[in-house]
Amino acid sequence: MKFHVLTLFPEMIEQTLGTSITGRAISQNIIELSTVQIRDFSKEKHYKVDDYPYGGGAGMLMQAQVVSDAVAHAKASIPENQSTRVIYVTPQGEPFTQKKAIELSGADDLVFLCGHYEGIDERVLEEEVTDYISIGDYVLTGGELASLVMIDAISRLVPGVLHNEVSADTESFHRGLLEYPQYSRPEVWHEKEVPKVLLSGNIREIEQWKLEQSIERTRTRRPDLYEAYERQQKAMEMLLKDKLLHIDMIEQLNRGIGEVVAMDEANILIWNFHVNIYYHTCFDVTKAESFMQGLPEKHKKQLQNLVLHQEELLPLFQSTFGMKLLMPCYQMVYTQKEQIPVKGLYQADGKELPGKVVIRTLDDSFFDVVASTYHTVDSPEYIHERLNSGEVFGAFVDGQITGFCGYHDDGSIGMLEVLPEYRGRKIGKALEVYVLNHARRRGFIPYGQVVPGNEISTALQKSIGLYQSKSPIYWMGIDEN
After folding, report:
1. Measuring CA to CA, which residue among 157, 188, 119 is closest to residue 25?
2. The pTM is what?
3. 84-95 and 131-134: which strand pairing?
4. Quick one: pLDDT at residue 390?
């Protein structure tokens, strides 16, 4: 991911982001930073960028042409196939939340426009800005501090920025709860003791204590979040009645990448706001149509990709919502808490040994081999995005890539392919086990999806210990015809 910051004070951005965790990530090329001095695009003798506003009023306004030229300069360095957002930081914008940070972390390039004085000429904002975002209901002297806050929150969601791969998933706002209280040495400080349960060594009791503390802290400090959490828990109770069928919906909530946008006694609709996928299930199909018709207009307009969990509802979504069936899939779920033994499959220590399988993260330099082998998704942009996410892993033998597997952008495990000349050597199983264990270490329930009739993949999943849902789910998309 690359951050472009258009500012009158580039040194302020560079010095702040050049330290600590973000500084290390920049030096390791995990994230990139480019600052653009807006004054460089002024045609005035003294590099003036502001002027008096028409209609009068206090203060000065940044001029449209100067800002437009600065934005054009930043955009010129971004490849055409990159997903780009131009963000204007303003108290008038949408509130910045963890959900928004997750959404923005999916972009390739983020351009931050930092205003000063009384703001920026409205005409250039209308032409260039995709997102108006605020970090709070107060006014700052400029947009730099707000941009720094957002860049810090977004960058730590980029794979590799945090050394602990679990930490971004377990802190404040994960699963809609505030973080539990934490303690370090000494055990007694100012006559206050560390809670005994944290010293017990009983992992199950410790995890239960953390959850209880998170729930109580959220209830007392953020009743708005607690109300949403209760709603999510009610939905979870309904979904768990058929865990295998609903594992995709359950994990959207567990991983903090989905929210319950509508529900009643018979229907649940979850929205993955990170990649704009909706998931619907219904326990009484006669009540589905009125439920969907009652959705807020925002979600009706965004309904481009949908996963249905009842075959009987296919005609409804085809006729009423103009969608077409893309593919049915069976859910494959690994329900055990323990990781799968890897002995005999791959080198757990990552050491290269003659003829042995070593698995490591792939990057975009492996695009050609992945694109030439993986044909399920006919989208070069998607393959680039997955490789850049750090969530695709390759199996290597004697330094040569032999296959790959990873996570789809919805969190399911897939993209499993073994190069033809290496098939029959348990490399597919090694890759699958590696990614399943990777998911378990992150606290996820590993799951994937297999199209009906793919007996080879189904047999592989079951041999590892995954269970198959009794009925399929149905991927749907807008019918353009």
Report:
1. 157
2. 0.79
3. parallel
4. 86
Residue 405 bridge partners (DSSP): 393
> Cα 136–13–95 angle (5° rounding)?
20
- Label residues 342-378 b or e (16+ Cβ within 10 Å = b): eeebbeeeeeeeeeebbbebbeeebbebbbeebeeee
The residues facing 477 across adjacent strands are 305, 324
Return the beta strands (E) in 149-191 as ranges.
Answer: 188-189
Average pLDDT, the chain: 93
- Whether the link from the prior residue into 95 is cis, omega within 30° of 0, is no
pLDDT of 284: 97
C-alpha 10/C-alpha 110 separation (Å) is: 16
Contact 149, 138 (CB under 8 A): no
Instruction: Tell me how far apart the alpha carbons of residues 448 and 466 are, in angstroms, rounded to a whole number.
Output: 9
CA 426 – CA 345 distance, rounded (Å):
7
CA 102 vs CA 124, 155, 170, 275, 350: distances in Å: 27, 10, 14, 10, 31
- 252-294 pLDDT, tens digit each: 998 888 999 999 999 999 999 889 999 999 999 999 999 999 9
Beta bridge partners of 281: 268
Q: How confident is the model at residue 164 (pLDDT cuts 50, 70, 90)?
A: low
Q: What is the CA radius of gyration of the chain?
A: 25
Long-range contacts of 55-58 (CB under 8 A, 24+ apart): 57/118, 58/118
Please say if the pLDDT value at position 166 is more than 50: no
In one-letter notation, the amino acid at residue 120 is I
The reported pLDDT for the residue numbered 288 is 97
31-81 pLDDT, tens digit per residue, is 999 999 999 999 887 888 988 888 877 778 899 999 999 999 999 999 887
Angle, CA of 239, 329 and 387, to the nearest 5°: 100
Give the DSSP letter of residue 181: P
- The count of other CB atoms within 10 Å of the CB of residue 279 is 25
Nearest-CA neighbor of 272 among 303, 315, 234, 233? 303
CA-CA distance, 316 to 445, in Å (whole number)? Answer: 31
Are 14 and 35 in contact, with CB atoms under 8 Å apart?
yes
CB 180 within 8 A of CB 214: yes
